[in-house]
Amino acid sequence: MNISVTDRPRVFLGAPSILTPQQQPELERWVAWLEHRSCEVVRVTRDSYGADPWRLLTGLFSHSDGVLLLGFRQLDARSAVWRPDTKEEARPAGWWTSPWLQLEAGMAVALRVPVLVAPETEVEDGVFHPDAWGTHVQGTALTDPGATADHWLTAVREHRDRRTSAGPG
What we know:
Blueprint: E1 10-14, H1 24-36, E2 40-42, H2 53-62, E3 66-71, E4 75-76, E5 95-96, H3 99-110, E6 115-119, E7 137-139, H4 146-165
Parallel strand pairs: 1-2, 1-3, 3-6, 6-7
Antiparallel strand pairs: 4-5
C-alpha cells in the first residue's frame, strides 16, 4: 500500500463502483468539493480490493482523516418485504445502496475516523437512515454538502491534527 505524506487532510471516498450517467456528476461534484477544501481524496477501484479487502481498508482508514460515503441507489427494494411472516413484517426503504458502504462505515467508526454519509433520495438502509446519524456518523443530502458537511470537515481536520501530532506508529 502506498501512503502519501501530505499536509492536507486525507478523505476516503466510498461510492458504488458502477453509477448511472445521472449519478456520475454528483460523485464528481463531491470530489471537487473536497479538493476545493484542500483535501486529498482517496478512492479504491473495485479490482483493487483483492482477496483480503479488510487489510486494505484497515490500512487506508488508519491513514485517513475522514470517510465520506455516497449512498447512490443500487437496488430497487420497493416491492420487497422485510422480515416476512413475522410480527415485524414491513416494507423496507425504497432503495438500497452498496452493502460495502455499510461495512466501510462500521470499520471507520471502529477506528474513530469521522464519517459523513450522503444518501441519494429514498436511500435509507442502515447507516444511511437519519436515525443512525449522531456522534460517530454525520449525514447530509447527496445533492448538497451544506452546513452538515462543513461541520464534518472540521472534525476531519481535527482528526488529522491528532493523527499527525501522534507521530509514526
